[in-house]
């Protein structure tokens, strides 16, 4: 199973191979706005390659490299303001943050009010340096707003093409690789259980879980051997159809307020979420089918996630008064409606209290 099986869902053309050999295929015009970060695209030599190839092909460019992890709406707006009279295509270079920001820039360059309305952007392509977020095949862009909350922008935009050079994945640290693996698994679990899941999306979710999950405690070497590039794509296909739910919705809070990386933040709540889901009517039946088909025991996926997670971090400590805030923000986000069984405030509170250390 590959992304080509789902081109009616995810139309992005994925181009695999060396950046040097393939980069001309993602040129869409004569004025490119490059949206990226200030770190790995430079240290890996990607920016130098892009500049050289653009020069050889008479493509002018503007580099906006102020994108941070968990990209800011204000950064996207600044990029658009700085390029008012420039740019006929966008190139995002990086992982989920840079690509998400590039999609948002594409839309805003075409006059779309990305927070309140849908629309089309100018052409946008990507060079992916980190596989895990699924952004290479999804239409989503997640931005941090000035009020400190995260928002999946209303406007949707797929990349036209995305260049994936597997050699770029080798620079990822062990810690970050585990965070990406947890993010992929969270995508697959949440989309599998989603109220929007279809037979095709559930097949993708199941395949992604099968590609990532391992029985028992595993080491970093086994994580390194996983095909995260393919699993990220499959997980991205699944959430394009079915979306994410509880672990993602709760994870945004501890990412924003405690600096926990996105993948780890989702992992923090996954074990308790699965434990509750197993007891519910619709999700319980779905999980039983999944476990039977993949020969997984109850609790094994949560244990797998926690074994990866707590090699690199301690249990998150959250102040007692924040629990109610987290519950209310989660319910306001509407992520509970993605879950097919009923969830009330007490259910969400229980997931939080089981997943973090609540302190006075």
UniProtKB/TrEMBL annotation:
Native organism: Entamoeba histolytica
Domain called Fe-containing alcohol dehydrogenase-like C-terminal: residue spans: 182-318
Oxidoreductase among keywords: yes
GO molecular function, one term: alcohol dehydrogenase (NAD+) activity
Keyword Plastid annotated: no
Name listed for the protein in its UniProt record: Alcohol dehydrogenase putative
Entry keyword set: Oxidoreductase
Coiled-coil stretches noted in the UniProt entry, renumbered to this chain: none
Domain (Alcohol dehydrogenase iron-type/glycerol dehydrogenase GldA): residue spans on this chain: 25-157
